[in-house]
TrEMBL record:
Transmembrane stretches, start-end: none
Span of domain Aldehyde dehydrogenase: 13-92
Secretion signal span: 1-22
Pfam family, one: Aldedh
Keyword line: Signal
Stored InterPro entries: Ald_DH/histidinol_DH (IPR016161), Ald_DH_N (IPR016162), Aldehyde_DH_dom (IPR015590)
The protein, known as: Aldehyde dehydrogenase domain, aldehyde/histidinol dehydrogenase
Organism encoding this protein: Helianthus annuus
Molecular function (Gene Ontology), one example: oxidoreductase activity
Amino acid sequence: MLIGFARFALLHIIGWADKIHGLTVQADGPHHVQTLHEPIAVAGQIIPWNFPLLMYSWKVGPALACDNTLVLKTTEQTQLSALYVSKLFHEVIFV
């Protein structure tokens, strides 16, 4: 059941990845207002021991959808789930 929730969260976030883009907005006066789509920086994320796969999808999905780098810290008890999903991401991206 939790795998289904994590899958739904990732699919929802992945759906927004191509809808985030810069917009030019009309401004009053001689000003030019522009929104740029650029990565901000490195995002540090901490995942608690409860619901590790669901928390992973909530934190990794938005960071990757916005082209940010991610540093992930899991608890000692739940490291394998994050490592396995990261391995799956690597296989999908670099095949």
